[in-house]
């Protein structure tokens, strides 16, 4: 009887080389059903991996010897990072970006304080009031409302109320208001953007109801944000004027806590750009807070400059220096942990300069709005606080004296604003052109036409329509 022939599918292991299968599996010489065991490793290979045993003195001499002939001080699998020599440039690049951001924020503040009322007065008295002028009118009404709210605030009472608190409670208050400042900034930018879009759209019953709700939200936001920044100003003023330096050190420790929350995380270039934009706005806010504190202190001593040079200037320099050091450390480790080159700062600067140059082609109310939204900067709360501090430090003169003084002062301020805007625009255009030429020189010749005709800094184009 013929045996049945079984046809089996080829095994997936059949394609393995014969030498590999023979080396990995060995059939034992015992019983047929014995378990297969791997072949023992060659003793010579094991002996090569095990280091030779040395005596104590031999180990001591090897530890004391730095290197032997033919050896290298760097292991084969460890190579020096190419970004390490460029760490010294990060401080300069960060401060260069901060210089441009602070300059723009100052120009935007001058626009809100000087140009905005002049524009509205010109539109109203000329009779050419269009729909695009409604949002600047709302901004002016917000400015007037914020200044009126601050007339009800007693700065001396708030100052002594904060001063009598314990150090721990003051530390908690400062942290709480710092978080509220960030939340209010983000919420305020969204509400202002929504209100601007609603005012520029067609009017209807539902749209009018939406505009009223957004306007109420904007007024509530402005009220909250003004008093949040006011408490920050007074808390830092208490820390600077205190004789105990530990209070100032505790308040400045928040800056180093910011390093902990920023650097130990994986972010891309877009996330790093958001950190940069927030730092630019924070740097300008800190400068304005220090200016208000110095002005108030000088007014208390009858504008004695020796008081400023005696001890106040040292604490102000200490606060600014700590902010600069913290920003440099933060961005240095962000670049180190995320393996970014220093050229990414040129991309950030080019994007900010492009926003300013492209915004110059728009109408007057919209020229600064794109870059303001990108930086998250709202000049209205700071403008209201500046008016409050100026009303406190300036002498109390009769109203007819102010009618004589204010027109020439506003005229000089308007000229300064126009000159400042012109210089800022020229600087942004010059930096944008130089950065484009630098990136074109770094590209191969066959790719230069593509970068010349297209957008050089494409990864950040999604910010252009925010």
TrEMBL record:
GO terms for cellular component: ciliary basal body; endoplasmic reticulum membrane. It is found in: Membrane. InterPro entries: Tatp1. The chain crosses the membrane at residues 87-116, 137-159, 211-233, 399-419. It comes from the Eukaryota. Residues 24-46, 440-466 are annotated as: Disordered. GO terms for biological process: positive regulation of cilium assembly. Keywords: Membrane, Transmembrane, Transmembrane helix. It is a multi-pass membrane protein. The keyword Membrane applies. PANTHER family: TRANSMEMBRANE ANTERIOR POSTERIOR TRANSFORMATION PROTEIN 1 HOMOLOG. Belongs to the TAPT1 family. This is Uncharacterized protein.
């Amino acid at each position: 009887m013929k045996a049945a022939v079984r046809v089996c599918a080829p095994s997936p292991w059949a394609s393995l080389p014969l030498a590999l299968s023979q080396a990995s599996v060995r059939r034992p010489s015992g019983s047929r059903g014995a378990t297969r065991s791997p072949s023992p490793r060659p003793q010579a290979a094991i002996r090569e991996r095990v280091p030779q045993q040395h005596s104590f003195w031999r180990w001591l001499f090897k530890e004391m010897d730095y290197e032997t002939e033919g050896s290298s001080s760097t292991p084969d699998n460890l190579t020096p990072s190419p970004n390490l020599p460029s760490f010294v440039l990060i401080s300069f690049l960060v401060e260069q970006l901060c210089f441009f951001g602070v300059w723009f924020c100052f120009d935007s503040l001058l626009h809100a304080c000087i140009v905005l009322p002049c524009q509205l007065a010109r539109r109203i008295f000329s009779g050419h009031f269009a729909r695009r002028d409604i949002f600047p009118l709302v901004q002016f009404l917000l400015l007037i409302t914020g200044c009126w709210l601050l007339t009800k605030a007693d700065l001396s009472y708030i100052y002594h109320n904060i001063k009598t608190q314990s150090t721990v409670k003051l530390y908690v208050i400062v942290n709480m208001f710092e978080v509220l400042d960030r939340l209010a900034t983000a919420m305020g930018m969204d509400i202002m953007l929504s209100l601007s879009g609603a005012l520029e759209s067609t009017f209807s019953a539902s749209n009018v109801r939406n505009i009223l709700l957004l306007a109420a939200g904007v007024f509530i936001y402005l009220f909250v944000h003004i008093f949040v920044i006011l408490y920050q100003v007074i808390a830092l003023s208490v820390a600077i004027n205190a004789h105990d330096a530990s209070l100032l050190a505790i308040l400045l420790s928040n800056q180093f806590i910011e390093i902990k929350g920023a650097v130990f995380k994986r972010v891309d270039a877009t996330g790093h750009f958001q950190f940069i934009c927030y730092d630019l706005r924070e740097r300008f806010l800190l400068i304005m807070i220090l200016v208000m504190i110095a002005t108030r202190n000088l007014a208390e001593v009858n504008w004695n400059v020796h008081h400023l040079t005696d001890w106040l200037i040292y604490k102000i320099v200490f606060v600014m220096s700590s902010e600069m050091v913290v920003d440099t450390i933060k961005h240095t480790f962000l670049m180190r942990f995320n393996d970014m080159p220093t050229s990414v700062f040129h991309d950030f600067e080019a994007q900010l300069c492009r926003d300013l140059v492209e915004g110059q082609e728009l109408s007057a109310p919209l020229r600064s709005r794109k870059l303001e939204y990108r930086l998250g900067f709202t000049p209205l709360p700071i403008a209201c606080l500046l008016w409050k501090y100026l009303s406190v430090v300036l002498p109390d003169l009769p109203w007819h004296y102010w009618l004589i003084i204010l027109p020439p002062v506003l005229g000089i301020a308007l000229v300064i604003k126009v000159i400042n805007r012109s210089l800022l625009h020229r600087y942004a255009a010059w930096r944008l052109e130089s950065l484009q030429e630098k990136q074109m020189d770094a590209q191969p010749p066959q790719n230069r036409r593509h970068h010349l005709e297209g957008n050089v800094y494409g990864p950040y184009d999604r910010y252009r329509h925010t």
